[in-house]
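ESCALATION

Customer reports they have been waiting on this structure for their group meeting. Please prioritize. Original submission:
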Amino acid sequence: MDADLDPDVRLEPHPRVVDASLLVAVVVLLATGATSLVSGRPADAWVFDVHVVAGLATVVLLAWKLRRVRHRVAPARLDGTRLVSVLLAVVATAALATGVWWVFGGRLDLGPWGLLNLHIGLGLLVPVLLVVHLRRRFALPRREAVADRRNALRYAAVVGAGALAWRAQETANAALDTAGAERRFTGSRETGSGDGNAFPVTSWVA
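Update from on-call: job pushed to the front of the queue and completed.
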């Protein structure tokens, strides 16, 4: 039966499993992100590592989700519930993008705030929108779908891809000598040295 399916579809877990996985990913990202705000010792580096890998793995999960629901966002089919879903997708994508941008040494001047503040703000907005979204669309996956051994392999591949992307990012930063190459494990990096009183925007969390 699977032989007649689109190869991309065969790679995807059951839709409800993807949805549940995105929920778990948001919880992990929120927990590690919040914990990182009070973690500054080298022994806490694993918190940041898990946050990065979970974020990169979420890119794959979000791509699966958006591929499946893209036909539902046609202008003629939009209603209040779907507009919330679209807003959630946009904010989640922006949160992931600003995180990646920060890791590569990106900067953004938003007055008293910077790029990391924007990333945190977007990240905190995601669970709020997700709760509103789930009020109408929450459904647990069937036990058979969760227990499918193929799903275990798929998710092992997703997490592995996230870990590889994390290492590839570190390599790219070093090879391209970006501002992110010299950052601390918390994400902080030197900036503004020699600028006198032109102090750069900073954040205590990094």
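Sent to customer with the following note: The CA atoms of residues 102 and 116 lie 7 Å apart.
Escalation resolved.
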